[in-house]
């Protein structure tokens, strides 16, 4: 009977340690990646508390063009009373040249403890050719953009109480490669918000 109780206690301790363990990892969505393609690089912290996170420091992106970032996303789960949460910092990058490149470690502080990701090696291959430019130096005409691109804004709620959060999501739909032309030229005004 004592052996069964010891095994049960060990299992509960091990299971609890896994649930409350903290980790900080780096991942890429494509490896290898083409020279003219985008690469999504994500740094994800997992643990029981993401509210204490501070001092996120990304690595240098020497061999890549920074297209977007840091973009942040967080999630929280409660399963049988055990809380787990993740905070992700993501970047969209475009390689500058062909070869194998190492992206260094990112770091973050949680509850006074420094966490670092392992460096990640990305192989850049020839891939698809770069779009040809027209005489104005643009690879895509304004008419082509107007015919093949639109933005949709959606709100998660249509009726809200004063002080209640509303999340507005903007989605860009396109049939053409617009990565080199992407930038926010004007932000919307949020009257009475």
Description:
The protein is mainly beta. It folds into two domains: 2-127, Immunoglobulin-like; 131-185, no CATH class. It contains two helices and twelve strands. The strands form four sheets. Strands 1-3-6-5 form a four-stranded antiparallel β-sheet, with no helix packed on it. Strands 2-10-7 form a three-stranded mixed β-sheet, with no helix packed on it. The model is unreliable at 13-19 and 133-138 (pLDDT under 50).
Residue windows where pLDDT falls under 50 for at least 5 positions: 13-19, 133-138
Total strands: 12
Return the CATH topology of the largest domain: Immunoglobulin-like
How would you describe the shape? flat
- DSSP strand content: 35-45%
CATH A-level architecture of the largest domain:
Sandwich
* Count of folded domains: 2
What do the pLDDT scores average to? 77
Q: Structural class of the secondary elements?
A: mainly beta
Q: Enumerate how many helices there are, as a single number.
A: 2
First-last Cα distance: 63 Å
Rg for CA atoms = 22 Å
CATH-wise, what's the superfamily of the largest domain?
Immunoglobulins
H/E element order = HEEEEEEEEEEHEE
Q: Strands of the largest sheet, in order across it? A: 1-3-6-5
> Approximately how much helix is present in the residues?
10-25%
The main β sheet shows up as: 4 strands, antiparallel
Name a few traits of the molecule.
193 residues; mainly beta; Immunoglobulin-like; 2 domains; four-stranded antiparallel beta sheet; three-stranded mixed beta sheet; 44% strand
